[in-house]
Structures are given as C-alpha cells and as structure tokens.
Specification:
This protein has about 450 residues and is of the alpha/beta class. Helix 2 packs antiparallel against helix 6, helix 4 crosses helix 5 (about 120-125) and helix 7 (about 385-390) packs across helix 8 (about 395-410). The protein has helices at about 5-10, 20-30, 70-75, 110-115, 120-125, 135-145, 385-390, 395-410, 420-435, 435-445; strands spanning about 35-40, 45, 85-90, 90-100, 105-110, 150-155, 165-170, 175, 180-185, 190-195, 210, 215-220, 225-235, 240-250, 255-260, 265-275, 280-290, 295-305, 310-320, 325-335, 340-350, 355-365, 370-380. The chain is built from ten helices and 23 strands. The relative contact order is 0.09. The strands form three sheets. Strands 5, 6, 8, 9, 11, 12, 14, 16, 18, 20 and 22 form an eleven-stranded mixed sheet that branches. The protein has a ten-stranded mixed sheet with strand order 4-3-7-10-13-15-17-19-21-23, with helices on one face.
Length: about 450
C-alpha cells in the first residue's frame, strides 16, 4: 500500500533551497478559507460537497518501463518517441525517459532533481509567475508539491520531438500537488504536452474524490518558439482540478497554447498567457466538452505587459447532460502597452435541455493606441443544416454527430499534431456516443 504522509510531513521533507518559501506558503494555505468563485449574474463554483480533509498525498514506487505505467497513461502516450517523458503518479515521479539525441544542454528531470542539480536555473524562474497571491490552492501547491517536472531547452537549441509531462491519479483519496516548470531559452524551439489523467474510479457510489491542485509555469524567452498542449481527461470519478497555468513570452518570442478539457467532476482553472516584452506574439486555442454532472469553470487572460505585442484567442466548447460549463476570457492591456493588437472569441454548443453554458468575453484596456475586440456565442445544433443533410440521405443522428464534430474541427486542425488530433477526435466521438439519447431528444424538441 502507498504511504499516506500528512501535509506537514511533506513540508518537512522539502528541498532546502525553497524551505522558507514552503513554510510561508503553508501558512497562507492553512489560513485561507475554502474558496467560492462567483460569476456576477451567473452561477457559482463552490466546494461545498468536497471532502478535502479526507485526502492525502500518496507516494508510489518508480516503474521500470512504459509498459509498467497505469493503463490510462499508456493509452494516452502510446508508442510515440519523445524528447523527454516525465510521469507523476500521485505525489511521486515514477518514470523519467530522456532521448539520447537531444541537443546538448537539454534538461529533463523531476523538479526536485532540478533544485538539487540545476538550482541556478530552477530558482531563477520558479514561482515568479504563480505564487501564494493566486489563492488557497496555489499556496497549497507551493507548500506541498513533491516530484514535479522540469524541462529546460538551452539557447538556440531546436528540439523536434515533443516533451511529455503526465500527471496521473490512479485512485480516490489522493491529493496531488503537481508542478511543472519549463523554460524555452533564447532563440530555442520546443513542443510540450502536459496530460492530466485518471481512470474511472472504482467506488461503490461512483463518486470517490481526489484533488489535483496543479501549477504550471512556462517561459518562452526572447526570439524563442514554443507549442504547448495541455490535455485534461480525469474520467468519470470525483477528481476536483483546481489549477493555475501561465505561459510568459519574451521579446520577439512566439507561443501557441492549446488547452483541451475533456473530463473532470469539477474543474476550476486559471489559464493566463502573457506577452511580456515587445514583439511577443501568442495564439491561444482551446476546446472543452462536458457531460453528465461535470462542472467546468475556466478563466483565461490574454495579458499584454508591453507594447508592440499581438495575440489571438479562440475557444470552442459543448455541454451535454446536466453539466455546467463557464468560459470567461479576459483581454487585459496594461498601462504603457501601446500598439498591442489582439482578439478573443468563444463559441459554445448546448446539446441538452439541462446543460448550462456561459460565454463571457471581457476587456480591460488601460492605454490608447491599441486594437482589442471580443465576441461570444452560445448556440444549438442548426436544424436547417440537419434538414439539409437529411435531404441528402444522411440520417438525423449521423447529421448531428457530423455537425458537432465539424464545430470543433477548425481548432483541432490547428494542433498540427497527428497523435493529439486523433486522441481528441476519438474522445469527442466517444462523448457524443455516450450522450447520444440526450442529444437526439433535445434536438428533436426544437
């Protein structure tokens, strides 16, 4: 059986370079009330039914090969080649794999090992974008993380194969404080995939709870290029995901970030992409699909901290069953960020009479001489299109499936990643099949 250390034992075992920070973060974490996130005029995300006190970090022994990893991980990563692969199960990094043909200077290791062996790099970036000011669970992560993932791509290095970070929760009762720190240094290029996965928990009532309180900090430095994909599918168990992820782009750097949310009992995530210096450019394209009683609350920010920066954000989502999905996207252009140009749009499909979706685009612009605009829609399957397809001999059920899959396709094709595109298409098709009766009944009632 895996050990179940309490929170303070994890802090006691922390690495010395950040002991003081851990202690301070623990004090913030323990003093903070359990949060509630309110949407003015909309619904609320709360943890009223969350049995947090029953959860503990659990540690697991390392495994020898990919074949020994949990099946849900093997299904996701399959047989691909990676520049690096780090798998964290619960509170432990259980598997690390590093390609032999990586450019000189590439580092792939646990975050614990990075502080032990590369403190000059890790300490320079760690906690500079996400800290205790980001709420109770970000403070909890700063205090309690173990294992963690660290990726460093040195200046001018070009890495063609993707880096892979996998966080997995195999069983209920687990509190996972996973942390990823990745740096793509000056004039380098890299691809990073981060998976957050769990099987359907075997429990008597199907509601066994677990926590993923994750933090991801990614830095794309001057003239660097990075493509980041974050894939979440926590299965049908009771995983609560309360995470903060930030991508920061330096001078003349470019980043494309693709968040994908396809399963989780309750998800409350803050996702920020920051153009921090002149010439920085970003593209932020996300998808989500909720079903059953899932609750998804996403808040994203396109933040311009410097002038002469560009951005574009496009999200698409769908909701079935009794699920709730809220996407709030903010464009924030601070003082002195003149000549910033950006656009945000969000589009969602309602596929059930009991599902609820909110699309909330917003702007905070504190300077003149910028262009910033947004748009948002929540709609249903177009019956005119269904009718047209039926006149061409396509059955109603197949027509609806084609229309929903086609709704997501403009974002999925932007991945430029055959492995991930296939995985997302298969998962969306599976969700449509699982919600088939509900979707057809709702469409027929219109």
């Amino acid at each position: 059986m895996p050990a179940e250390p309490d929170h303070r034992n994890d802090v006691t075992a922390a690495l010395s370079p950040i002991d003081a920070d851990r202690k301070a973060a623990l004090e913030v974490f323990e003093a903070a009330e359990m949060p509630t996130w309110r949407r003015s005029g909309f619904w609320t995300t709360n943890l009223r039914d969350f049995d947090f006190d029953s959860l503990r970090p659990r540690h697991y022994e390392p495994v020898a090969s990919r074949a020994d990893l949990p099946q849900v991980v093997q299904d996701a990563i399959q047989g691909e080649e990676y520049a690096g692969l780090i798998v964290q199960n619960g509170a432990s990094v259980v598997y690390t794999e590093v390609a032999e043909d990586n450019p000189e200077g590439v580092i792939v290791c646990s975050l614990e090992d990075a502080f032990a062996n590369h403190p000059e790099i890790a300490a320079k970036y760690y906690g500079t974008r996400v800290g205790t000011q980001d709420g109770k669970f970000a403070a909890g992560n700063a205090a309690l993380w173990t294992g963690g993932a660290f990726i460093y791509v040195p200046p001018k290095a070009e890495v063609n194969k993707p880096f892979q970070v996998v966080n997995v929760i195999e069983e209920p009762g687990v509190a996972q404080y996973a942390r990823t720190l990745a740096i793509v240094d000056t004039s380098a290029s890299a691809q990073l995939r981060e998976y957050n996965l769990a099987p359907d928990f075997p429990s008597e009532d199907g509601t066994g709870q677990a926590l993923h309180a994750g933090v991801t900090e990614i830095f794309v430095n001057a003239n660097a290029w990075a493509k980041v994909k974050t894939f979440q599918d926590w299965g049908a168990g009771g995983v609560h995901d309360i995470s903060t992820k930030r991508v920061t782009i330096g001078r003349d750097g470019h980043a494309r970030w693709f968040p994908i949310h396809l399963g989780g009992h309750l998800t409350k995530q803050t996702l920020d992409i920051i153009t921090a210096e002149p010439g920085a450019d970003m593209r932020h394209n996300g998808v989500y699909f909720t079903q059953g009683d899932e609750h998804l609350d996403l808040f994203t920010t396109d933040r311009h901290e410097s002038g002469d920066t560009t951005g574009d954000t496009v999200w698409k989502g769908a909701a079935t069953g009794n699920s709730r999905a809220s996407y709030e996207g903010l464009i924030e252009i601070i003082e002195h960020a003149k000549n910033s140009h950006t656009y945000l749009q969000t589009h969602s499909l309602l596929l059930s009479k009991n599902a609820k979706v909110d699309a909330i685009p917003s702007l905070i612009v504190k300077v003149d001489d910028v262009s910033a605009s947004h748009g948002g829609t929540v709609g249903e399957v177009d019956e005119d299109q269904v009718f047209y397809m039926r006149t061409r001999g396509i059955p109603r059920e197949q027509a609806i499936q084609i229309l929903v899959e086609g709704f997501f396709e403009p974002v999925i094709t932007l991945f430029e990643d055959e492995h991930l595109e296939t995985l997302v298409r298969e998962r969306i098709a599976g969700k449509l099949a699982e919600a088939h009766d509900d979707i057809i009944a709702y469409a027929a009632s219109k």
